[in-house]
């Protein structure tokens, strides 16, 4: 596999928007190898703004990869359990990189980015689809391992390009489409959740995807790093839009019941136990041909020993990652993400419980600060998703 970008970072790096964040008064913290804004005006205020208006997030730490070459979809299907070859141009799919033991290397988004070539009337050529291309967005903390894994297991004929000169911003919230439509002249009017388009906004070539990790309607916008500040300034000029940091992004995704890699899913967890069976396309489960399939299907057919579930706690004290879950004197699980939900006004958590205790309504206790807090298993998401799926 070919890749023009072999440099691996050895220290904390700065994002393309670092100066912009500091100018907005951001509190910066190290995360995934970068200095990133954890908050601007306060986590709760930013959380509530995103739920009611539109929050602008910098997610440029994520890895943006482009894969091209003959049979690229078929080769990707050897590593991902989702249906990639049948994914239509402009469509997006959530998927997983799985190791040979069935553990989750990373979760990611795959877009069929095959370009449309306009007709050349002078040459008498009709419009047609160009060479196949797939755009992947992977987690920032794992992107170098992901790249190494892809290089190792994809043939040399597949070219992997790390788009490290691109920034990535996310505009999330019920008024995200209103603001973006106003700025970009209704370019995204017909888009629905999990669709992606390319768009030249003046001299700025953008990729706009209707997706995000807050549970709200919204967009992720890939933009050349040199234009990122100008684009953020333009978006924040809209009355609905304010910058939001990592703190609110975490509380929003927790309310949406979305797992965070390195916490709720790791190489020690399989897709079935992680409640991510929807990412294992039925036809591909049956036909196989993807790495880790034997190990994953063993758990699928026999049932997992434990499963990721949502938990609501009584009182106001939240349970954090690492807290143990009990049924009487017996430990039956552990918390992997937890916090206080600004939307619900109560503490919530997700974690892994023994299969015998995963039914909604099951009462358990969570050990927090040497105290046992009453809790019960509840369905996720905690706050309903509001993705725009069209009519």
SSE blueprint:
Layout: E1 13-14, H1 18-23, E2 27-31, E3 34-39, H2 43-52, E4 54-58, E5 63-68, H3 72-76, E6 92-98, E7 104-112, E8 116-117, E9 128-129, E10 133-138, H4 143-153, E11 159-162, E12 166-172, H5 176-184, E13 196-201, E14 204-209, E15 218-224, H6 228-236, E16 241-243, H7 246-255, H8 282-287, H9 293-302, E17 306-313, E18 324-327, E19 330-341, E20 346-354, E21 363-368, E22 371-378
Parallel strand pairs: 1-3, 4-16
Antiparallel strand pairs: 2-3, 4-12, 5-10, 5-11, 6-7, 7-10, 8-9, 12-15, 13-14, 14-15, 17-20, 17-22, 18-19, 18-21, 19-20, 21-22
Question: Outline of this structure?
Answer:
This protein is α+β, with helices and mostly antiparallel strands and 391 residues long. It contains nine helices and 22 strands.
Describe, in plain words, how this protein is organized in 3D.
There is one protein chain. With 391 residues, the protein is of the alpha+beta class. The protein has nine helices and 22 strands. It has helices at residues 18-23, 43-52, 72-76, 143-153, 176-184, 228-236, 246-255, 282-287, 293-302; strands spanning 13-14, 27-31, 34-39, 54-58, 63-68, 92-98, 104-112, 116-117, 128-129, 133-138, 159-162, 166-172, 196-201, 204-209, 218-224, 241-243, 306-313, 324-327, 330-341, 346-354, 363-368, 371-378. A six-stranded mixed sheet has the order 13-14-15-12-4-16. Strands 17-20-19-18-21-22 form a six-stranded antiparallel β-barrel. A five-stranded antiparallel sheet has the order 6-7-10-5-11, covered by helices on one side. Helix 2 (43-52) packs across helix 7 (246-255). Residues 1-9 have low confidence and may be disordered.
């Amino acid at each position: 596999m070919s890749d023009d970008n072999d440099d691996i970072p050895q220290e904390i790096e700065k994002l393309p928007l670092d100066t912009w964040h500091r100018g907005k008064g951001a509190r910066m913290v190290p995360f995934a190898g970068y200095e990133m804004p954890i908050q601007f005006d306060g986590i709760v205020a930013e959380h509530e703004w995103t739920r009611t208006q539109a929050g602008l997030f910098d997610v440029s730490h994520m890895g943006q990869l482009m894969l091209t070459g003959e049979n690229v979809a078929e080769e990707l299907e050897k590593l991902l359990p989702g249906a990639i070859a049948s994914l239509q141009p402009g469509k997006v799919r959530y998927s997983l990189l799985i190791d040979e033991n069935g553990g989750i290397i990373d979760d990611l988004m795959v877009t069929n980015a095959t370009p449309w070539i306009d007709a050349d009337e002078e040459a008498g050529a009709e419009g047609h689809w160009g060479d196949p291309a797939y755009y992947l967005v992977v987690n920032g903390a794992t992107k170098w391992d992901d790249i190494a894994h892809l290089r190792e297991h994809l043939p040399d004929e597949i070219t992997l390009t790390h788009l490290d000169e691109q920034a990535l911003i996310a505009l999330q919230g019920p008024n995200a489409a209103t603001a973006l439509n106003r700025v970009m002249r209704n370019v995204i009017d017909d888009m629905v959740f999990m669709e992606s388009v390319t768009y030249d906004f003046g001299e700025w070539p953008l990729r706009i995807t209707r997706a995000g990790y807050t549970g709200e309607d919204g967009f992720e916008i890939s933009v050349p790093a040199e234009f990122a500040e100008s684009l953020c300034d333009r978006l924040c000029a809209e009355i609905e839009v304010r910058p939001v940091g990592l703190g609110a992004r975490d509380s929003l995704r927790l309310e949406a019941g979305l797992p965070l890699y390195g916490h709720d899913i790791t190489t020690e967890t399989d897709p079935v136990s992680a409640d991510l069976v929807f990412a294992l396309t039925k036809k591909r489960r049956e036909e196989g041909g993807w790495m880790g399939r034997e190990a994953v299907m063993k758990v699928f057919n026999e049932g997992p020993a434990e499963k990721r579930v949502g938990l609501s706690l009584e009182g106001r004290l939240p349970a954090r990652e690492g807290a143990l879950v009990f049924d009487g004197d017996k430990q039956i699980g552990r918390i992997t993400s937890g916090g206080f939900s600004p939307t619900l006004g109560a503490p919530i958590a997700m974690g892994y419980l023994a299969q015998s205790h995963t039914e909604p309504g099951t009462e358990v206790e969570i050990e927090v600060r040497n105290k046992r807090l009453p809790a019960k298993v509840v369905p996720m998401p905690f706050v309903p998703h509001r993705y725009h799926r069209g009519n």
